[in-house]
Amino acid sequence: MTRILLPEHGGPDDGPPAAWDFSTNASPLGPPPALMRAVQAADRQAYPDPRYRALRQHLGEEDLVLPTAGGAEGIRRLTLAAMLAGHREVWVPQPGFGDYAAAASALGLAVRPYAAPADIRPTAPALVWICEPCNPTGESEAAWPELGGHLVAVDRAYEALRLRGEPPALPPGAWQLLCPNKALGLTGIRAGWLLAPRRDEVWARALMLAPSWVLSAEGVAMLTHWPSDATQAWLADARHQLRGWTARQRKLLAGLGWQQRETCTHFWLARPPRADMARRLRQRGIRVRDAASFGLTGWVRVSAQPPAAQQALQQALLDIESEDA
Ligand SMILES: Cc1ncc(COP(=O)(O)O)c(C=O)c1O
Question: Does ligand 1 have an atom closer than 6 angstroms to the CB of 97?
Fold first, then answer.
């Protein structure tokens, strides 16, 4: 039988709700009040326009904007469209978001992990996933190769949460995946979009593969308010706040002997000085994302949280330390 590959995620798990959740990459600051009011006022009693014409015009060039039920659905749909258009290999960042490999594996496509852009060397027509900035590392590349002839898709899930530096130039002709629910702190709303570079075979497949009404009324409201000046100004303030919380939390962890990787986002990879830390913290109502499924045993991914959460984390770590003394 096919080996079943199901991605792991941060955020709520099947245990009791965590009092303090450092495992999610969603902004702890969302949502912006005006956008939230629009979401709450969304008309749930009627279908949205099945073509989403007004929304698509609002977000870009109408034909090229393909609404998705979140980034995760966009990844599945683009992978299937790529396969139907003749792509046989899927290149995925390693460590990277697990859904790229899961989508490819489900379709029987060859999964090719890469650690650095120079490692991407397709031997057949390929779909290449780029995650900028990358989850789980929070890192960004200075430059990406052109990868002409292959289907390049840039997942920009965390672009709005880039806390420092500028985004690198994207390979020409790349698809983009945009899913702002994380920056808005609204991950319960399943809405995003794919931006196609041109009307071609992959575009036609991805368009036709969308279920009718793929976006809920709430999703339409969220995406409609995404580009507004009010939302973008709110996000600039949120980034400012997150820079401060990130610096504070990194200092706290460094003081307790944690090794930490560089990041340009409010989440990053860290190695606690003791084993089994994800489980031991979970027992104390604190969730961090165990990074073992990213191939990084002994590491965890943490996101910056408000000072009260950081204080709870510090206390729990000190308790664990004295328990082991
Ligand atoms: C890199 C990346 N892309 C896409 C997604 C999918 O997000 P959603 O389906 O909530 O839009 C996530 C969620 O964690 C992610 O980390």
Answer: yes
